[in-house]
Amino acid sequence: MSPSDFGILSIHKRAGNWVRRVRQVSGVLARFGFGSMVHLMGLGRFLPARWRGMEEEDKAAIDPAVRVRLAFEELGATAIKLGQALSARPDILPLEYARELRKLQEGVPPVSFDLARDMVERELEAPLDELFLEFDPEPTASASLSQVHRAITRTGELVAVKVQKPGIETQVETDLDILVRGARYVEGRAEWARAHNVADTAADFAHSLREELNFLTEARSLEQLRANVSDDDRVHLPQVYWSLTRRRVLTMEWVEGIRLDDADALDEAGVDRRELADDFAEVMLNQIFYDGHFHADPHLGNLRYTADGKIAFLDCGNVGMMGRRVRDAFIRLLMALLDRDAQGTLDQLVVIGTISGDTNLQDLEADLEKLISRYGQRLGSSGRLGEMLEETMGIVFEQRIRMPAIFPQLTRALTVMEGVCLELNPDFDFQVATAATTQTVYRDWFSSKHVLDEVVDALRLMRRYSLRLPRQLSNVLAQGLAGGLVLKLKPYGVDKVLHRVDDMVNRLSFAVVVAAVILSSAIIFTSERVMLAQSAPARFLSIAYVVAGVVMGAWLLYSVARSGRL
Fold first, then answer.
1. CB atoms closer than 10 angstroms to residue 444
2. Which of 175, 279, 297, 429 is catalytic?
3. 297 labelled catalytic
4. What is the pLDDT of residue 560?
5. Average pLDDT for residues 90-115, to the nearest whole number?
6. Of the candidates 287, 78, 251, which has an alpha carbon nearest to the alpha carbon of residue 161?
């Protein structure tokens, strides 16, 4: 068999896997009562000829948001990751769905030790015995994409080896291809999908999940976080062992410590949990406000309190990064919320997000005022900042404002941070915890160095545009003199009007044709002379012609009645 034959077989195999997975996805969605969504995504043709969805009474009894979660859990790793990502996006998903998707769990059993060992040896290109003195065959943790094994290097360091599960990358790529194609198809056919940029959201998720599958990206993020907190003796980030790290295998320092939700162990170690909550909040706020490079999922399972009194961050696969402009705007937004300033909150939302033609700024401000007044005077000490941020994102969703992808990461990081701090200290006051950080931020904003940097940036931008402007004007004039200058106008909403007119003209033309067929067939059928003069085959064709005219007329009436525009 030639190499080209192997290539053809590989393509056929991938195509077969793709079709099987599409059928599985379509079947699961239809079974949980989302058959209309399957057809909207253009996947209806992949459904079995006789598929059975949920009974109507079952659909009525189970909340739609719960059915979405159950469907995602059954679809596996990619869907679970997608659900977890959407749970942080109340700006593109109704709030009740986002909250339900937070219940998604990754309780996935580990793969066998033989498969894990093969992956390690293939990636590191050496037998396991030559790489490690010891390698625990039982994983200490298992998720949908990977599992972690405890090991000892040849030089005696205790390490955690994160191993990607074999075959998961192929499955994820197939799922992402289905997701991106389906999102594009839906966006081309549904107004709500276009309004919320469903295709771009799917593409962003696909990019982030591919990055998560590349452990080198996580290793670099871990090293960057480690460098940023090197001067803070309250924080510990594990060291990466680059010689034992590849795309699908990540080896890092093993961290022993107490989980932050183990109150008894913390008390036994003599830890002041109130002080620990304040330290953790300050560490996270410093990462967000100063570094712009922060751990985006600092939940209790990713945190440890070490024997030397440090907060250790684990699992840096989800790290957020943002520039100074977005960072400053988000700080102002957070301060406006804490100060109960609806107008200031509105101003920063407009700065951060992209408003659409459907956005009503007056309604937006009114909704924000209602939201702020509902949460009371002492928001920071109510333990409800996370809820308020979520509801703010819900208002953004209703007003069709598109927020940058980093914004949900920030919101989730702060919400999770608040939950951890409340676990440590039920009386935790977010506003008090942020006071020192915000004062330093304000001082930095108005410092001579910061002002000078902003002036220099503005001058640099003015210089860049001033150098480009003469050339751009010259090009425009040259095109005008050459007759090549074209002015394009696109009135808002005209596409819909033209589409309606096009449909109306097509229907009118079809009606004229149907009327002509019916009229001519009636003349033929009622003319005795014509019918007697025809042969049997010709008579049969005449009758078929009459029947076709009647069917076409009936179909036209049915389509008009179904459109609701009689």
1. 13
2. 297
3. yes
4. 62
5. 78
6. 251
